[in-house]
Amino acid sequence: MQKLAIAAIVVLGCLQFLPATHFRDPADPQRNWIPFDRSRDPVDLPDEVGSVNVFSWISCLDLRTLAVLTNSTLSSSSDPHNISFNFLIPERGTDKSPYYKLKAVLPDSNVTVASQKKIEDKLNVATPEGNLFWSFPGELSPIIIGTTQFSQKRYVYISADSIVKGKIEDLGRIDLGTYAIAGVEDCTKRIGDYVSIDVLNAVQKTAPKNLVYTEPYDKDACLLDFDVLVVEPRKLRKDLIDSIMVWFRAFSLANPRDQIRLAVTLALYDNYVKLPSNWKRADANSDILNYDGPKNICSEGGRQLQEEGYGENWQLYLDQKSLAVLS
Q: What residue stretch is flagged as signal peptide (predicted)?
């Protein structure tokens, strides 16, 4: 009997090395065994990408834009079940209705909704970095998310007012190499349009060497676009915000948003992967479009105003019944 028991243990142990043939779906209450589909060619496996985490920040809450962003991304994906959405919305206390409304119109989506206050608490708005961030959340939130424990692994940041026509998986499998960020360039604006190379060189000589690029800057270099970014949090420089602060304080442009865009571009200069140009908003052939439906606009005083839509693309991803729930 002892020999039989030992033999049984050895046989069972060897079975652990055989490839799995069935699995259980965690969502199945019956916990039935389901056979794996072996029909796919094994050579396709290296092209597969795991789950894609999508983050988005919205300063003036409008669930219609978030629903269109979600549905358009899922509609364009070849593996929608592996996409999760993480929306950071203005503080609403303990109100869970934004989450429940989104799940009501998109029941099969993997959506989480979190308060922006978590980032506020992390930054402490009394600091210069915090004040800078809250002045330009649209430009800085894609980076700050990766430094505030919201995500420990790679994520794709998409602007909330977007319609995604491309496959988000293509961004999920981008090889970042040693870089922490991949982004699209906006070549309608270049560094030399805002500041002279002489001024750049002067700042470069006086700033701490670890916070600025060590080689000469190119005045014809394009600015970084913030609509789509791929971020690897573990590779982010710990002094990246300090570098942005150095460049932001070095200039005084008429348009503060141009100033922060220039500062971020200079802080990340030659230190990011360039995404394909089809991920730059341009025309109907791009992989990302502007949300063209009605939406809320928040004034500095906190009042919400309604802005009329100007197109029909958004209607492909949000029907009238869902619109009534989200409005």
A: 1-20
